[in-house]
Amino acid sequence: MRTVTVGTRGSTLALAQTHWVVARLKEEWPETDFRIQTIATKGDRNRASLISMAKEGDKGFWIKEIEDALLAKRIDIAVHSLKDLPTSQPEELEVASIPKRVDARDVLIGKEGMKRLADLPQGARVGTSSVRRKAFLKAFRPDLQIVGLRGNIDTRLAALASDEYDAIILAAAGLIRTEMRHRIDEFIEPDIMLPAPGQGALALETRADDDLTVEVAYAIHDHTTDDRITAEREFLAGLGAGCMAPVGAHATVKGGILTLEGWVAALDGSQVLRATTSGDPSECAELGAELANDTLGQGAQALVDAAHEQIA
Ligand SMILES: NCc1[nH]cc(CCC(=O)O)c1CC(=O)O
What we know:
- The termini are far apart.
- Helix content is 35%, strand content 23%.
- Strands 2-1-3-10-4 form a five-stranded mixed beta sheet, with helices on both faces. A five-stranded mixed beta sheet has the order 7-6-8-5-9, sandwiched between helices.
- The chain is of the alpha/beta class.
- It has helices at residues 12-28, 42-45, 50-55, 64-71, 131-140, 153-160, 172-177, 211-218, 223-238, 284-297, 300-311; strands at 3-8, 33-38, 77-81, 93-97, 106-110, 125-127, 145-147, 167-171, 186-188, 202-207, 247-254, 257-265, 272-279.
- The ligand NCc1[nH]cc(CCC(=O)O)c1CC(=O)O binds at residues 81, 83-84, 170-171, 173-174, 199-200.
- Tetrapolymerization of the monopyrrole PBG into the hydroxymethylbilane pre-uroporphyrinogen in several discrete steps.
């Protein structure tokens, strides 16, 4: 029996999504034995200094150790949240497969009487440490107070019980995958808060020359998800921005047409540039690049640069 070792971080979410991936792979490859290996990353060990790590240009703080394990052949497939994966991989590695995406939206979870964003009282305190969520929240409701909120999903949900927050914002996908959908009070529509590029999608990374494993992983590839997230990530890349930028992107495919929406915001929400384009899904990369150029033409570079400076 062939054995494929699947590597992941050890958080509840990372393990839940890896168990889901392995169950899907096992359906396609019943003769293969899949093992799960957990790996601690710098992001797991040192949560407090995410911002300072970003300042050092250390983009892959959730993935470096996992990619090292792939290169050293300790694991064969790495499972990542796609939105945490930099837009390019080391030369010896590749994203071999992108499974079907779950809900890309952000959600609100609130205390009693604080269950809808539009209905929150004046000056309500909303927990998030995402610059994108903060900027779009401030643009929608300048009165809201944004309070930092870090940690894995369990930590963030527990923090809501404290006095510091009236409501918190999380990705729907994380709650759905950890069987906590029932905790969601409101799905925030993309016309209020555009999701992060790739939110709700996973990436299976392999060694580029490991043909057998690439084939195993590719069996659960979803072409429509791939087209959508390619458009979203090309938009982000075209802006020269990373996952710490106040940038949202969301692509949908309906009736054979891909529609991509992209937003770039000032950190304080005082300005949001919005653009949209559509075309054939096979043109997904070009559509992303074109949309980045469109927002650059509207002055997006100044917003991205200002965000880089303020965060650094
Ligand atoms: N940055 C952390 C992170 N990375 C992936 C998810 C879960 C959602 C997903 O798969 O996109 C989360 C938590 C969150 O943003 O609430």
